[in-house]
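User: Before I run my own analysis I want an independent prediction to cross-check against. Here's the chain; please return only the structure tokens and, at the end, one sentence I can use as a sanity check.
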Amino acid sequence: MPDVILSGSEGNFSAYLATPASGSGAGMILIQEIFGVNKVMRDIANQHAANGYLALCPDLFWRQEPGIQLTDQTDEEWQKAFALYQDFDPDKGVDDLIAALDHLRALDGCSGRVGTVGYCLGGKLAYMMATRSNADCNVSYYGVAIETLLDEAANITRPLLLHIAEEDEFVPKEAQAQIKAALATNPHVTIHSYPGVGHAFARVGGQHFNEEAAALANRRTTEFFKKHLG
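Assistant: Structure tokens:
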């Protein structure tokens, strides 16, 4: 699958594009973790393409260092990933994601319906896409710092699915409770909690991968996209 070049408000950046065998379908923006558009993200994009979607995963760290592809297997990579995260501007990231959304919708073969799915940092950005963009639906896996953005919750008018790890070391239980309380009355929001698992439980090959919880969350995500994207 090729990398493509997208045009944003502050410059051009790359994205990984995976297309279904049919060449057509609904679109999906895949939002990276703090490790960049690495093999994990590309494999997820390929799986969504195998399920019939045009999957686009933009490089959101392009302003700092284009083409980052890290793993969670070494301390050195973790340190670099956290440094990139600390220097990252989420507002500019959402601008890039909206540019990616517009690009994907305009592609030949795209039905025009496009959702997003993000993990970790990407989970936070998926929530922000639910509050700031016209994406048709959004999915967040263990999004970080969502509790700091709950003042935007009233802007959610399209389906949003949140997967929360109950033992998430980056999202304290108090923050989880705040998120659930703030979103409980919004009919567009569905929240699933996963007991006994930590952050990144769905990252295949990762340090905290939990096969059972990942399979359940991924099945729910697949059903969610089928319902709202077709």
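Sanity check: The mean pLDDT is 96.
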